[in-house]
Every structure is written in structure tokens, then in C-alpha cells.
Amino acid sequence: MRLPCFKEHQLSTSAAHYTKRLALLRAELASRQLDGFVVPLTDEHMSEYVGAYAQRLAWLTGFGGSAGSAVVLAEKAAVFVDGRYTLQVRDQVDGALYDYCDLPAKQPTDWLVAEAREGMRIGYDPWLHTRDWVAKMRETLAAKRAELVAVEDNPVDAVWQDRPAPSLAPAVPHGLEFAGKAHEDKLSDIAEWLKARGADAAVLSALDSIAWALNIRGSDVARTPVALSYAIAKADGTVDLFIAPEKVTDALRAHLGNRVSIRDRADFAQALASEYAGKRVTVDPERAVAAIFEALGGGGAQIDAVRDPVVLAKAIKNATEIAGHDAAQLRDNAALVRFLHWISVVGPQGSETELSAAAKLQSFREATGKLIDLSFDTISGAGPNGAIVHYRAEERTNRAIAPDMLYLVDSGGQYRDGTTDITRTIAIGTPTEEMRTRFTLVLKGHIALARALFPQGTRGSQLDVLARRALWEAGLDYAHGTGHGVGSFLSVHEGPQRIATFGGGDEPLKPGMIVSNEPGYYKTGEYGIRIENLVLVEAREVAGAEKPMLGFRTLSHVPIDRALVDAGMLDASERAWLNAYHAETLRRIAPLLEGDAGVWLSQACAPV
């Protein structure tokens, strides 16, 4: 049995520069009389994807995933990742420098309980951690008679000599034709929510919340169209927007109007500390960092710790946003079908690689003339690399796509009218019976979730088992959630809704929410399988129902590789679903294709 935290050394390239960086950080900590420091992968907005300036974990350790953290002591260090990255972290991070710890089995607090000694001073950046994290870590260290110490400036930044500056790209208006609701109306809704709570103001620190509430977008974070800023929404319907002056254009000022006061982002902390004495201010304990709570509390504000009022409103798409998603899906799916036709021709020749295939897929999306950015770095995994859940191909790991392997491609685009995310697993050449069997088990789970009917109030955690049941019955599983929310030209991973039995999934699903349906299976060292579509929660009429019922409408329409389907494992209703799905895919996508791609689509969508 593999323990959740252990040491090994599998790095395939020299880690000398990471050794030097770790030594520099340790010297910096010693100069500050600190015995350790916690390095999370986030920014001052608790973002999942962060700008280059905030990539401290990657700079220090080499880990390139989108979630994780490290703890550095004078003589030991550890890196913490969840099940999506257990293979990737061992490939990218030197096990001679860091213990590998698997979340959630081993938390940083657990590791420090074992490693911290009496009198130690462990540093943290209060702009990179939540208040709850700070309280728990402080309690943990106190039990060891050690101390958690806030730093005024981040010691990683002090030794990162070529650290990029935060982006100063302009923030831009997001038109009503895409947003579907004026920002003035959204601000009025927030004001009514504040009045109902007896609050004077709400701190908005999550970048996608600010973008949605003010109908603005930006290019400060790769793959997520947000602008670095903070906002304080008030009960009178006005907002203070804290943003770097260089990012403000005349067009932005005209769009925001006189209900939005534009202030320098550098003044945010001081405003919290000096302008809200005696006032009741709501702050999201999950999305706002500890420094925000400390500034407000230190200034005499009454803090109401509650979820950001934008989060749920943003998750429930309006009619304009849903129509935009449909349009974005249609063009994006057609681009992916062109790619699948292309890979069906060139894949068996062995002339393409993970990187060249990802570039080709991006070119098909760019050819739509509507692509703003990818929605995340394309996961292009051939053979054993497909078993790395959040794999990202690079020159060092780039593998040829060759016959008799599975190729997994998880990708998406950012368009003004919608954000897409879809995964297909493709047989290059002839798949083995085991590949077909396990693919079909994943497909059965995908179909079960796609067809689900459930009463209003059902949570994603209650549906997750539907996607896993067929795999469980074969003694198999996958170490990631089954579904995540998706934004409207915003974050490809959006809460609060999820379909998962761990790490979330407790938000009731509501009509208008978009989630992914993506069960998978991964055989380490051999291949990976995932089938992902986006689905929309909609009301359903069910004869005799005693309460309102909901179901999913599938938004993604791209063929599922029939060469990997063992039709004998599907029951009649599952075969009917697959054939209907392919018929609808052909109906939607065929008019957008020409020549050989159209012929290929007709064959790919033939009934099983």
C-alpha cells in the first residue's frame, strides 16, 4: 500500500535550478527569523488559475498543475496535490527536495504536526490564504508550541529576481448582447440582498464575480478573461472598483457610468481599514483572503461572513447566456469534429505528437474567427500520458501518437458568447478488448448521468454515484470529481455547483446551471479514458411527479468513438441514447462541414 506522503526521486531532468531556488528561499526565511513558510498555488483573489506574477509554486518547485501547495522548513519540504496530479507531481518535482503528499489524505497541517518543533516560527502570506485556513493552521501549530507568523511581504517574491509584473492590460466592457442583464440591474440586486441582511457593503474579491457583476472582462490571467481588481458593492446600489489606473480606458468609464467609482487598486487595503468603522460588511470566507478580514476587523467593521452574493446568480445562466453557450458550443464542436477527422487520417501514420496535435486543434478553433483564448491548456495525452488526469504536454514529455494506443484530448475555447470544455478519447489503430470494455463502462456512467431525472433540491453529490456505478461494479474508479460548473465567457471551472462526492457537490442544482459530465478511467503507465460533455440543468415534466423535477440537456455534440464501444455491454436504453445523441450530432454539425470531414462525421455517427 502506498502511503499518502512519501519520498522518491523520479525526476527525469536536472533539478539544479530548483535546488538553488529552494536554498535561496531558506536563506531568506532565516534572515527573517522564520523556520518555515507555506507556498500555495493561488493569488490574492483565491483564483484557481493565476497570472504569471503569482506562479510562486511553479517557480519554486517546478510543479505545473493548477492546484497544490508546498511547505518549506529549514531541512525538509513537502508538496501537496490531489488525485488529479499524483503522477504529474512526481514527474515535475524532485523527490530529493520534497516529500510527495496526496490530498486529502495528507494535509499541510498533518505534515507540520509531524515535522514542526517547539518554538518554530512558520510564515504565511495573509493575502494568499483564507481566514479559516489561518485559524486551523494557527491552532495546529499552537498544539506543538510553534507559531504561525504573518509576513508583510512574500519571501518567495524577495528571491524571485525575474518575477513578472502583474498585467496592466485594459479591462473591457462585456456587451449586453452577451451578458443579457445590465450591470446596473445586477448592482441593484446586490443592494437589495445587502438590505435584506442589514448590511452596508459587500466585498467582492473573486475576479469572476467582479467581471460578472460589472459586465467587464480582461486578459490578466491566461485562459480566464478577467481583470485584476477588487470591488466593494454598497447597499445604495453603487460600487467602488479598485483597479490599476493603467487598465482604465474611456470606453470602460463610459460603460461603468456614475454608479461605479474607479479607485486605485493599491488603495484597497487602506480603504477596508479606514472607511467601514461601525458598518456591517459581508465577506466570503471561502473566496476572500485573511488579509481582507484583518483589515476590516482592524478598522472596526462588523464582519458578516457569508458567500459572495454574485456566486449563485452568476451560476444560473439567463436566456441570453444560454443562447450564447449554444452558439459557442456549435462552432467549437464543429472545430473539434474537423480535428477528429484529421487525427483519424494522420494518427495511424505515427507522424504527429501530442504537441503538434494540440496546435492543430487550436488552429481549427482559431479558424472560426471567434476564438478569444483557450479555456485551459489543452490536455493532449497519448498512451500512458493520457493516464495523467491533468497532463500538459511539453517538449520533455511530448509523445508520438502512434497505432494501437488511446489518445485523450481534453480542450475548450473562450468565446465572447460562451466557454467550452469537452473531452474525447480516441482509438488510434485497433484498441484492445480491455480498452473497449473499460471505455464502455465509462460510457455507461456518462449516459446514466446524462439521462438522470431528479427532484428540485438535489445536490451534485447525490448524482455522482450514477457516473461511477458501472465502474464500481467492475472494481474500478477514478480520482476526480464527475462535474464542475462552467462560466459564461469566464472561468471554465465555476462554482458553487459540482457533481462530486468529495471536495464539494453540496449545492442544489438549479435550472440554468451548466455542469460537465466527465467520468473517466486511468490505467497508470498505459492509457487514460474520459468522456466529457457539458450539460444544462432544465425543468422536466414527469407524469405523476409530486414535486418539481429537473434533468440535463446535453450542450456538446461531438461523436463518441464507436471503435471503443462494446455494444453488447449496453442495454437497449443505453444504445438508444447513444444513437439519438449521434443522430442529433449529425443534424447539428453536418451543415457546418464540407468534403471529407462531412463524410467522416456521417460514418462516426452511424447507429451502433
Automatic annotation (TrEMBL):
Domain Peptidase M24: residue ranges: 327-538
Any one Pfam family match given in the protein's UniProt record, by short name: Creatinase_N
GO cellular component: cytoplasm
Gene3D superfamilies, per database record: Creatinase/methionine aminopeptidase superfamily (3.90.230.10), Creatinase/prolidase N-terminal domain (3.40.350.10)
Domain Peptidase M24 C-terminal: 548-608
GO molecular function ontology, one term from the record: metal ion binding
Keywords: Aminopeptidase, Hydrolase, Metal-binding, Protease
Residue stretches making up the Creatinase N-terminal domain: 21-152
InterPro entries: Creatin/AminoP/Spt16_N, Creatinase/aminopeptidase-like, Creatinase_N, Pept_M24, Pept_M24B, Peptidase_M24_C, X-Pro_aminopeptidase_P
Family listed: Belongs to the peptidase M24B family.
Listed name of the protein: Aminopeptidase P family protein
The organism of origin for this protein: Sphingobium fluviale
